Amino acid sequence: MTSFDIIIVGTGAGGGTLAWALRDSAARILVLDRGGFLPQEPQNWKAGEVFGQQRYKPNETWESASGESFKPGVHYCVGGNTKVYGAALPRFRREDFDALEHEGGTSPAWPITYEDLAPYYTQAEQLYQVRGNRGEDPTEPQPAPPYPHPAVPHEPQLKRMSEAFRSQGLKPFHLPMGIDLGGKCIRCHTCDGFPCFVHAKSDAEVCCVRPASQHPKVTLWTNTLAVRLVACDNRVAALEVNREGTTQRISADTYVVACGAVNSAALLLQSDNLANSSDQVGRNYMVHNNSALMTIRPWERNSTTFQKTLSINDWYLEGPDWPWPLGNLQLIGKVQASMLRAARPRVPHPLLSWLARHSMDWWVMSEDLPIADNRVTLTSSGRIRIHWTPTNTRSHRHLLKCTRRIMRRAGYPVTFVETMGIATNSHQCGTLRMGADPTTSVVDPWCRTHDIANLYVVDASFFPSSAAMNPALTIAAQALRVGDHLKSTM
């Protein structure tokens, strides 16, 4: 049986960042991913391939509580979902770490504070080359050092839209982004939702896994599926894997699970319900309330190429005519007709092309609250089943109403909204929640499981709440914090 000091299962924002944090320690580290390296190929930038043919998604389906199959928004490759994310890398707000009342219920407090993560947020912004303008966002935690790089500038129509929002009394800001703008990035229109053909996106593979794997004590195994953790006397004794068709067992002093919130919970459940004395494994599943909004100025074509630069947080903590938090607005990458066709195959292509040419495209995001019955389970055959009923939906609908209003005032009188369902789960979190009380949580504030002394979970599984911001930077910051903790115990 092959032996290491630390085994990390998963190479996304959690596992990949942790591998980088531990790269220069004395530990012999094995990093596993169930997929391989996502190929650099012309199809990376072809919307029909990425969205229409779903070229980079696994041939896998999950099912809802009612038994309906769906294809999840996951990617099994080195770097995980960061290979196709939009590279938006904001910090959570200071208030997100405290108990926060919403119209739909209470968002619980975290067992750590913003101040605990603040220095690691700064390190993560450096590691992922984040671009932004500190102080523009009215809700951004202060004080904080400047971003490593200046913000990605708005193109002319976005600059005009930003000024239109300011004239309404809003405080739009440049969305913090992780792209290599001064080097490889060509500011194309295939960034958000696409792999980057030139590796200019700050993903976990490029920023963390590749440099970490250059160290002599770090070993990377690709195409290696973690099947089961084998425990003995309240410790994990071995990890059973399937590597290129062969089953084998590997061992370590410390095991870190970072497969994504759903697959990490599934791995513990299929490992004889491991680390589950609290009955919380798989529970409190959250994915955000998400809607895509296309706003149309019929008489003007949108000539923007790199669109994902503008965001609004004015209603993050309290909405207009609404005493509760609403959420975040941010532009997404420029929508193309072939992307719309994948979602609306029966709509005539000329109409989809006209809409894509004239639209500004937004992501509208509100907090999804944790409830125990929203959970991950396994069927008798081992298939993943997701039990999820959206929460806090009235606030999300109010946020959409407010968004339509400011868009009309900005000169965009027509809007179309598509509210996302169970398959849009790229912001999945909460299934192995972090807490100080072993009876109500799975991992402690250092992401070590309460039940198993040598088992850690370092992905968005540990989130006690989802907030209403992109999760990647918070995952990476906690991974760096856990890395320091593990090095202190060696």
Task: Report on this structure.
The chain is 22% helix and 21% strand. It is globular and about 70 Å long. The protein is an alpha+beta fold and 490 residues long. The protein is built from ten helices and 21 strands. The chain starts with a strand and ends with a helix.
**How many helices does DSSP assign?**
10
Strand percentage: 15-25%
Q: Indicate the mean pLDDT.
A: 96
Give Rg in angstroms: 22 Å
Distance between the termini: 23 Å
User: What's the shape?
Assistant: globular
Helix fraction by DSSP (H/I, runs of at least 4): 10-25%
**How many strands appear in the DSSP assignment?**
21
Structural class: alpha+beta
**Low confidence ranges:** none
Characterize the main sheet: 7 strands, mixed
What attributes characterize this protein structure?
10 helices, 490 residues, seven-stranded mixed sheet, 21% strand, six-stranded antiparallel sheet, alpha+beta
Short description:
This protein is of the alpha+beta class and about 500 residues long. It is built from 10 helices and 21 strands.
Topology (elements, then pairings):
Elements: E1 2-9, H1 15-21, E2 29-32, H2 47-52, E3 62-64, E4 69-70, E5 100-102, E6 105-107, H3 114-127, E7 130-131, H4 156-166, E8 173-174, E9 177-178, H5 204-213, E10 218-221, E11 224-232, E12 235-243, E13 246-257, H6 261-270, E14 289-296, E15 310-312, E16 328-331, H7 337-343, H8 349-358, E17 359-366, E18 375-378, E19 384-387, H9 393-409, E20 414-419, E21 455-457, H10 472-489
Parallel strand pairs: 1-2, 1-13, 2-10, 3-19, 13-21
Antiparallel strand pairs: 3-4, 5-6, 7-9, 8-15, 11-12, 12-13, 14-17, 14-20, 15-16, 16-17, 18-19
